[in-house]
Design a protein that fits this description.
The complex is a heterodimer of chains A (about 400) and B (about 400).
Chain A: H1 5-32, E1 38-39, H2 51-62, H3 78-92, E2 101-104, H4 106-118, E3 124-129, H5 134-141, E4 145-150, H6 159-165, E5 170-176, H7 188-203, E6 209-213, E7 236-241, E8 254-258, H8 265-278, H9 286-294, H10 302-319, E9 331-332, H11 341-352, E10 354-355, E11 357-358, E12 368-371, H12 376-394
Parallel strand pairs in A: 1-10, 3-4, 3-5, 5-6, 6-7
Antiparallel strand pairs in A: 2-8, 7-8, 9-12, 11-12
Helix pairs in contact in A: 3-9, 4-8, 10-12
Chain B: H1 5-13, H2 15-31, E1 37-38, H3 50-61, H4 77-91, E2 100-103, H5 105-117, E3 123-128, H6 133-140, E4 144-149, H7 158-164, E5 169-175, H8 187-202, E6 208-212, H9 228-231, E7 235-240, E8 253-257, H10 264-277, H11 285-292, H12 301-317, E9 330-331, H13 340-349, E10 352-353, E11 355-356, E12 366-369, H14 374-395
C-alpha cells in the first residue's frame, strides 16, 4: 500500500462518516447555492482581526527591521515572551517570566510539542468527553493512550469518574474550557476538586500534570471568569492560540505557558526546544509572534458572540430542543431528538439545508454540535428550519 | 521527571552541541560579537527580495475578508495552482494543485511525509554525512534510519545503497544541494539510483525517493538541478522558502507529490491528514499568499557564489583539504587531525566557530555555514592561516 497501515487505519477510523457528510454538504451547496445553506459545521470563525491589529501589521511591514524574517530561538522572541509573561502575571497573579512562555504554531502545535516532550509509550492521558477529536490523534502521535472520562449531564467535570480513571500510568489530564463541542466553562468548584484529587496523588508520589487547552479562554459570556487554575495546582501547562480571540486561525500562532510552580521548568523547556525542532515546527511564525506580543489585551468582539449565542439558544428552546446553555466558545451541543444522531443530522441537512456535526465526532452519540461562529443572518435564516424540525420530532408535525 | 525518556536521551546525545554553543557565546562576550567569526549556524542573514517585502505590505493591506482564517488543510487553491504551474514548468510533468500540499517549512513537510508512509520498523535510507534532524524526523514516526556512506567526493555510492536496501526499505531520503557538504547530485548518479530502485519495483517493492530540496535555488556555476520526478515515478519533493526567499522564521514550504505516482490520491489524502493531526493544521496563511507569486524568484545567488569562492580560497590557501561545493551555503573540509571535536575547539581559540563533522555523522570533518557577511569571511582569513600554520608546525 502506498501509505502506512497506521495512517490508513487512522483515516478510516474517523473519515468514514465525516467524509460522506462533507461530500453530501458540498452536493447540497452546489444544488441549492451557498446562500440557501446554513453551514454550522465548521469552527472557522467568520470574524476579522481587530482593525488596530491590521494597522499594526501594516506598520510593521512598512518599516521592516533587518532580520525580521530569520530564524530565532526555538522558543520564540524574548521580547514577545516577556510581553506575554507580563500579561499573564496580571491575569493570574503568579510570577511568569519570559522563560515560562514558549511560542508555538497554534494550540495544536503547542499540544503536540508538550505531548512529545512528556509521554513515554503507553503513558495515559485523561480526556473528559465529549471532546475535541484531535486530542486523541495528538496523544496517539506519541504512542500515548487516551483515557476517556464522561462528564456530568451538564458537561461539567465528574471528579468521581476522573478519580476512577487514574492509574499508575496516568501522566496528565487534558482539559478544554471553554469547551469544544459543548461550550461549557468548568466551574471553580470542580477545578478545586480536581486540584485536590491530584494533590492527593502527588502526596503518594505520582505527579499528574494538568494540560489546559485554553484556545477559547477569552470567549466567555455572562460576565463569568475562568477559574485561575495556576493558583490551585502546581503542575499546570496552559496552551493557547490566537486563532479565536484575534481571529488569526490561518496564521498558526499560539503559546504554552508553563506554571512558575513547576520545579523542573528548565528541563521541560529544554525538552520542548528539541520537540518543536524535531517535529518540524522549528519555531512559531516570526511575523505573527511580533503581532501577538502586542495584542495580548485585545480580542474580537465578545458581545457579538454572546448575542449570537442568545439568539441561537432561544431558537433551539422555541423549537423544543434540549440543550445546556453554553457560557463560552462558539459551540452548542443539543441533544438529538432521536437516538441515532447521524440519521437526524442527515435529515436536517437534506430537509432544511442546515449543516451540523453529529455528536459521535466528539465521542458522544445522541447529540449534535452547532458552531455559531457565522454571520447573524445565517442564524436567523436557520430559525424556520429548526422550528419545523422541532415540530417534526417533538410534536409529530410533518 | 516532567519529560519522557526518549527526549531525555536525545538531550544527552546532543549535549556537546550545547557545550560548544556556550563556549562560542563566552568567546563573543570576551572579544565582542564582531570579532568572532561564527560559521556555526545555517541561519542566513540575507533579507527577502525587496519586491517580496512590498508584496507583503500589499497583501496585508488588502480589504478582502477572511485573509487570516483557516483554509483547506492543504493550503489555498490559488496558491497551490501557482506552485503546480511552477512544478509543471521545471519538470514538464502534469502537476495540478492537488499534487501540492503547503507546509510549515521543509521540516514540517518531511514530518508529514514520513507520518504518511512509515509503519513501525520501516526503513529509510539516508546518505551520510547528513543533516542530523533527518534521524529525528524518521524516528518520530517509528521508522528506522539506515545510514549509507557516500563516496570520498560526497556523491552517492550506488553499490552501498543497493547493499542497504532490505524488504523493509520504504524510502530513500536525499538532500541536494546538500547540507553539510554543498554537493549537488548529478544526473548520471540519480539515473543509476532510479535504475536500482526500478529493479526493486519490478519485484513488487515500491521505494519512494523523498527529496529535500530546501537549497534547490542556491546552486552555482550555472549548473541545473536534475529533473528527478522525470527519472523516477515514486518521487516526493519537499522544499521551503527559508533560504531562497530569506523567510526561514516564517515557516513556509510545500510538498510536491509526483503525478506519476500510482494511486496518488491516497498519498495526497494521507499527507493532508497528517498535516492536520501533527498540529500544523495548515501553512501560515499570509505567507502562502506571498510566496505563491515568487516561485520564480530568489535572493541574490551570485552573492552566495562570491562567498563560496572566497571561503573556498581561504581554506585552500590555509592548507585545508576540501571539496568545492556546487550549491547550498555549506562547506565541509577535512579536519587536519582525526578528532574533529578537538580541532573545532582549537579553532575556537582562534575565534572561528564551526560544527564538528560528528554532528553530521562524519567524524574527521567540520562544517562551515558561510551564509554570513563577506566581512566576516574576510576577517576569518588570518585566523584560518594561523590555524593552518599551527598544524603544519605540529606535523613537523
Amino acid at each position: 500500500m502506498i501509505i502506512s497501515n497506521e495512517m490508513d487505519q487512522l483515516i478510516k477510523d474517523q473519515e468514514g462518516w465525516t467524509r460522506r457528510m462533507f461530500e453530501e454538504g458540498i452536493r447540497i451547496k452546489k444544488l441549492y447555492g451557498l446562500d440557501a445553506v446554513c453551514d454550522f459545521s465548521l469552527g472557522n470563525p467568520d470574524t476579522e482581526p481587530p482593525e488596530t491589529l491590521r494597522k499594526a501589521l501594516i506598520d510593521m511591514l512598512s518599516s521592516p527591521e533587518v532580520g525580521t524574517h530569520r530564524y530565532m530561538s526555538n522558543n520564540g522572541y524574548e521580547d514577545v515572551r516577556e510581553n506575554i509573561a507580563e500579561y499573564l502575571r496580571e491575569v493570574h497573579g503568579v510570577p511568569f517570566t519570559a522563560g515560562h512562555i514558549f511560542m508555538t504554531v497554534g494550540c495544536a502545535g503547542g499540544l503536540n510539542v508538550i505531548l512529545k516532550s512528556m509521554l513515554n509509550p503507553g503513558d495515559e492521558v485523561i480526556v473528559p468527553t465529549p471532546f475535541f477529536w484531535e486530542f486523541k490523534n495528538y496523544i496517539n502521535n506519541f504512542s500515548g493512550v487516551t483515557r476517556f472520562v464522561e462528564t456530568k449531564e451538564d458537561f461539567q467535570l465528574d471528579i468521581g469518574n476522573i478519580e476512577a480513571a487514574i492509574t499508575k500510568k496516568t501522566r496528565a489530564i487534558l482539559i478544554n474550557s471553554p469547551n469544544n463541542p459543548t461550550g461549557a466553562v468548568y466551574h471553580e468548584e470542580s477545578m478545586k476538586q480536581l486540584a485536590s484529587l491530584l494533590n492527593t496523588k502527588r502526596e503518594l508520589g505520582q505527579d499528574i500534570y494538568i494540560i489546559t487547552d485554553d484556545a477559547y479562554k477569552k470567549l466567555v459570556y455572562d460576565g463569568i471568569q475562568i477559574p485561575n487554575i495556576f493558583k490551585m495546582y502546581d503542575l499546570v501547562l496552559s496552551v493557547t492560540s490566537h486563532s479565536k480571540d484575534l481571529a488569526l486561525a490561518g496564521e498558526r500562532i499560539g503559546y504554552v505557558a508553563i506554571s512558575p510552580s513547576i520545579k523542573d521548568m528548565d528541563l521541560l523547556v529544554s525538552a520542548m526546544t528539541i520537540s518543536i525542532r524535531v517535529l518540524g515546527f522549528v519555531n512559531a511564525p516570526a511575523l505573527f509572534q511580533r503581532v501577538a506580543g502586542k495584542f495580548q489585551r485585545t480580542s474580537v468582539s465578545i458581545a457579538d458572540y454572546e448575542k449570537k449565542r442568545d439568539v441561537l439558544y432561544a431558537i433551539l428552546m422555541e423549537a423544543g430542543f434540549e440543550c445546556v446553555k453554553p457560557q463560552g466558545a462558539f459551540y452548542m451541543f443539543p441533544k438529538s431528538p432521536i437516538p441515532d444522531e447521524l440519521e437526524f443530522v442527515r435529515t436536517l441537512q437534506q430537509e432544511e439545508r442546515i449543516m451540523v456535526v453529529p455528536g459521535r465526532g466528539f465521542g458522544r452519540e445522541g447529540y449534535f454540535r452547532i458552531a455559531y461562529c457565522v454571520p447573524m443572518e445565517k442564524i436567523l435564516k436557520a430559525r424556520e428550519g429548526f422550528l419545523r424540525t422541532g415540530d417534526r420530532y417533538y410534536r409529530g408535525g410533518k | 521527571m516532567p519529560i519522557s525518556k526518549n527526549i531525555s536521551t536525545l538531550m544527552k546525545n546532543s549535549s556537546w552541541i550545547r557545550a560548544m554553543f556556550e563556549e562560542g557565546e563566552e568567546l563573543k562576550k570576551k572579544f565582542g560579537t564582531d570579532n568572532v567569526c561564527d560559521f556555526s549556524l545555517g541561519n542566513p542573514i540575507t533579507e527577502p527580495p525587496e519586491a517580496l517585502k512590498n508584496e507583503l505590505i500589499k497583501v496585508a493591506s488588502s480589504d478582502a475578508q477572511g485573509m487570516h482564517r483557516y483554509m483547506t488543510n492543504s493550503g489555498y487553491d490559488n496558491v497551490r495552482e501557482e506552485v503546480a504551474q511552477y512544478q509543471r514548468e521545471i519538470t514538464g510533468l502534469p502537476y495540478t494543485r492537488d499534487h501540492i500540499v503547503m507546509t510549515v517549512g521543509a521540516a514540517g513537510g518531511l514530518n508529514v511525509i514520513f507520518k504518511s508512509i512509515l509503519d513501525p520498523g520501516d526503513e529509510v535510507i539516508v546518505p551520510s554525512p547528513f543533516f542530523v534532524e533527518f534521524m529525528f524526523y524518521i524516528g518520530n514516526h517509528n521508522g528506522i534510519i539506515k545510514l549509507v556512506d557516500t563516496k570520498d567526493d560526497f556523491h552517492l555510492d550506488i553499490d552501498k545503497i543497493k547493499a542497504a536496501i532490505s524488504r523493509k526499505t520504504k524510502a530513500i531520503l536525499i538532500n541536494s544541494p546538500h547540507n553539510p557538504t554543498g554537493v549537488v547530485y548529478n544526473e548520471a548518479e540519480l539515473l543509476e539510483l532510479a535504475d536500482l530502485l526500478h529493479e526493486r519495483s519490478k519485484k513488487g517493492q515500491r521505494i519512494y525517493i523523498v527529496a529535500d530540496e530546501a537549497y534547490k535555488k542556491i546552486i552555482y556555476n550555472g549548473i541545473k538541478l536534475p529533473n528527478l520526478p522525470n527519472m523516477y515515478e515514486d518521487t516526493v519533493n519537499v522544499t521551503c522558502h527559508s533560504k531562497d526567499l530569506g523567510l526561514a522564521g516564517e515557516r513556509i514550504g510545500y510538498i510536491a507529490i509526483s503525478p506519476r505516482i500510482k494511486n496518488v490520491r491516497s498519498l495526497i489524502d494521507a499527507a493532508i491528514f497528517a498535516n492536520r493531526i501533527l498540529g500544523f493544521i495548515n501553512a501560515p496563511a499570509l505567507m502562502q499568499r506571498v510566496v505563491a507569486k515568487f516561485q520564480h524568484n530568489s535572493v541574490d545567488i551570485m552573492e552566495y557564489q562570491k562567498k563560496r569562492d572566497a571561503i573556498y580560497n581561504i581554506l585552500v590557501e590555509s592548507g585545508f583539504e576540501v571539496i568545492k561545493p556546487e550549491g547550498a551555503f555549506y562547506i565541509f573540509p577535512k579536519s587536519p587531525i582525526p578528532d574533529d571535536i578537538q580541532f573545532v575547539k582549537t579553532m575556537l581559540q582562534h575565534r572561528i566557530l564551526t560544527v564538528p563533522g560528528v554532528g553530521f555523522g562524519k567524524s574527521g570533518y567540520f562544517r562551515l555555514a558561510y551564509c554570513v557577511t563577506m566581512d566576516i569571511i574576510e576577517k576569518s582569513r588570518p585566523h584560518f592561516k594561523e590555524v593552518g600554520e599551527l598544524l603544519r608546525k605540529g606535523q613537523k
